[in-house]
Structure prediction request, 171 residues.
Amino acid sequence: MRWIWIDRILELERGKRCVAIKNVSAAEDVLHDHFEATSDHPAIPVLPNPLIIEGMAQTAGILVGHANDFQEKVILAKIGRAEFQTAAIPGFTLRYEAMIERIDPSGAATTGTVHRVDPSNGKSVQLAEISLMFSHIDQNRAGLEFPEENFVFTDQFMDLIRRSGFEVPDL
Prediction:
């Protein structure tokens, strides 16, 4: 099973920008492994930063894939930068905004920000800045064999995009 770390896409501008959200729920088991209660303090459930990076990779990956109608298999090649200013805690919404800096036949470079939004009052604070690089693996095989089907943009991702109100081609 593939885990999707975004709940909905709000904006998708071909080759430019993608905005997605993730509601951080206390029902997610992964939050309760950080930080457990001790004799000195109560438990502090936190969404781990690598999963926030994965949410940005999914947001930016959709943006990169959408630029070429999802004809390429787009994979994360490198995390160029990931700087965090605060934590993602239950009850808040994460707002991912990814922008393409460069795209060519071999891949793409993206930059993005993650904001933590308090749904009770709409106030937002920047949680992270993340720069990622993606590879179009169909163009960069270097003798490796990959399945013909697009195993990156699965039905789960395509359904998420459709449910968010955006059209996607049949693959």
